[in-house]
């Protein structure tokens, strides 16, 4: 189930007084739902809300749910997580650095050792250290690059609302607490119509919706506005976190390349002095 399909179900149930139960069953069949299947990813959350709508035995509550959920497809649009160019550039640069470092380690350093050995000169201590631990920086950079990629995938799923629990598992630890809290608030808003969630309401956003419902304010509008606001905040926080990680990886990569070049030229200067 995707958000367009949920929106279609909402249109069916918002017209419940105009069409019979048999007509509803026919309209919500797979034949009709599949028309809205293309062009949007599946969402566990949309599936959950659709089940909540369809399985509700109270027609008036179904109508209320359909009114509140009907605006979600226009609100929940796939955010722009286009980091392919940046990641591609960094991956190519990192790959070139790995190849050059390996060539330098396997072929160049032994040649320098042989040349300097004929003059009874040892390699500089710093270059010796580099020769022993050159792979450490590459491994750490590879781990950081993996973290960047996984973070982008996790945050993209969260901002697309593709999953109800996108931050579970071992990779959830790489997501900042602030983003997890924002996502939890958003999920609490979506769970507003679940009885167990309402009875445990402690969040200001949930109490606000309860007050709106109590005093007769258009709940569908407030629900949609609140979802839109929280989703926008989540998207902004996610993009800031991704940009921080990309800048961090870029800075470390530049620093490692600089240190490599600094060590790589030392034997050349020594040989130049000998000659």
From TrEMBL:
The entry's keywords: Membrane, Transmembrane, Transmembrane helix
Top-rank taxon, per record: Bacteria
TM stretches of this protein: 87-113, 133-153, 245-261
Protein name: Type II secretion system protein GspF domain-containing protein
Protein species of origin: Pseudoalteromonas porphyrae
